[in-house]
Amino acid sequence: MIGSSVSEAAANLKAGKLVAIPTETVYGLAALIRLDESVVQIFKAKNRPAFDPLIVHVPSLEAAKPYIREVNSEAKKLADAFWPGPLTLLFEKSDQVSDLVSSGLPTVAVRVPQHEITLRLLQALGEPVAAPSANPFGYVSPTTAAHVAQQLGKEVAYILDGGPAKVGLESTIVSCLNNEVKVLRLGGLSLEQLSEVLGYTPELQLSTHSNPQAPGQLDKHYATHTPLYLSDAGLEELKTRMKPGQKWALISLNPLADLPEGCTNYPLSQSGNLDEAASKLFALMRNLDELKLDGIVAERLPDKGLGRAINDRLHRAAYRM
Ligand code: TXA
Ligand code: MG
Fold this sequence. Notes:
This protein is of the alpha/beta class.
């Protein structure tokens, strides 16, 4: 069922059911962290490996305190500057957080989403929910209620519809453990925004297969079923890959001209705006997947602002063994 009733969403969660919730980044698949069986259902519904820990969602830093050990100065600085917002922070967990949620790690990822209806839900609940993105493991994250219904409609008791996600990329994950700031996942909060508040550029420790800092960040992720190729020069890449009679898509930041027959260009923005591009990316990837094309080429975006996180997602979507 899709609707916009906070009380219905709350009642389902309290009854141990899964509820999809809107956030400014992507839609989440939520369960109360207190109910182990419900948390297990999240992993089952997504077909998600148990080693991939969940993010705990709370309405404020204050509400997070029973679940974490301490808030050091760098974490406080970032929470004060960016919550509610597309930032997830890592803390040492208290015994209120089960090993199911943290996948056995001594730490827990926490965020305060910037979405009015979900903040009201979290206030009404009076306790946190765990919520990964509401997509089958490895696929593109959902940015609308309809995306959730298409793929996980049978698994959720209720989809709380909060409209299309404004940011469109998952939260940026930052560890401030030992007061050392490290970015574990690029996302909806840019490196520039973080650096401005910190007064320095934090270290990037993005996960790869050989370095799983944020364990869910496997190389192959966010992937379409249609093969996707990432390139600095999209049009040239397309011309070498496309065979006569085939249908291809070319994703670019700005509109491109002079395309070969059979190829359609899908610009992410008319004006080169990286925030707009981020908000459109995942819906476009889903739409293109439905066209059953022979292939997709994506042209790498400028490595600044949200362009960096978009390139990270495209890179993982394009990864081929
Ligand atoms: O924007 C978002 O963050 C969305 C919305 C729904 O809030 N959620 C989301 O969750 O993207 P998910 O499960 O798709 O990604 C969470 C990632 C995990 O894959 C893992 O890499 C990292 O967060 N993570 C969670 N707990 C962690 C921990 N204790 N240490 C390191 N990484 C952790
Ligand atoms: Mg995800």
